[in-house]
Structure formats: C-alpha cells, structure tokens
Amino acid sequence: MKTARERFALYAVTDRVRARSSGELLAQVAAAIRGGAGIVQLREKELPFGEFLREAEEFVALCRSLGALSIINDNVEIARLTGADGVHVGQEDMAAARARELLGPGRLIGVSAHTVEEARAAYEMGADYLGTGAAFVTGTKADAKPIERGTIRAITSAVPIPVVAIGGITAANLPELRSLGLAGAAVASAIFASDDPGAAARALLPICQSL
Predict the structure, then answer these.
(1) 152/133 Cα distance (integer angstroms)
(2) Could you give the 3-state DSSP secondary structure of residue 169?
(3) pTM of the predicted protein model
C-alpha cells in the first residue's frame, strides 16, 4: 500500500504515561489527529489480547472517522482482525514478507531499521516505510541507543520509501534532524505525555513538515 509522503510528516505513537484507561488514550489520539498527526500507531505491550483487540477496534474506527491512518505495533493478528491500515514490526518481530502475506497488498507494512543493511532488506521484503532511531535518548524504549546522523542520512538515501525518525523527539530537538532526507518524525511522549496532546501536535507539525 503506497501512501503520500506528506502523511508521514507527523506520525504519532501512543504512550500510556498519562492515560488511565482506553477511553482516555483514545481521547488523546483524537486530539493528536486534530492537531495534525496523519498516522497514529497503537502501541500496547502489556494488554491481554482480548483487551488489546477491543481497544484496537475503537482505535481503528476513530482514526478512520477523523481521516488518519491506523497502524498497530507488532501484532499482525490484531491488525488483520480490526482492519487497521497497517502494522509496524521491529527487527525481532515478524518479518515484513510474512506480514505482507498475512495482511495482503492493501495494508501498510512499516519496519524498524537501524542500519543501511536492515533498511534495504526491509524494502526488498515489501516494507512501505521505515522507522529509524533512536534519534535521541528516549525513555519509551530503555534499550534504544541513539544512532548517528550520518547513518540516518545513509538509510534515507538507500531506499525509495518514506523514512521517519523515532526516539526521544521533541519540538526543541526536532530541528536537529533537518536535511537528512526524512519524510517525518514518529513522536510518542512529546504528544502523549503532554497536558494538551492537541497543542503539542500542532507545535510539532510545522517542524516535521520542514524536515
């Protein structure tokens, strides 16, 4: 599934740091979309399958109603059952080629890539876009180490698909990622840990669009 590059400018990734329930999380998602997020990824590492499925069904419907694309983190089965627009997988998760087999040609397949070799392999297996990072030190993934700017530039130059930076991104440090060939930025805490996710997204959007 090919998607306009502009959609990737502000890619929101959910983080439950402030949400005490699925309802609160979905309210944050709605605010992020209204603030300019064109794509939202639902990231749930702790929920049991049934609860994740119910939340994902509401998430997909919400994104669709507000005109954003819905991505499920890691769980291809949840993406398939909910009709989400796509799935994002890491290097330790299901291979992009297998995800494509299960979801078919009409869904987005995103892959995390930290090296040029991983980026090329993901593209050759059918990935539609890549997430690369960590761009900065991040509290969302404690084991994620920042990668060099030269590596990011090499990755964006190596593949013809959109690449978004992820990891520790804020409105303050985002300008450091300009001129690296990125399609946008994937942002978690800077939106979902904010008192006002909508305002946070609106502040981030023009910077993302200037990358």
Answers:
(1) 8
(2) coil
(3) 0.96
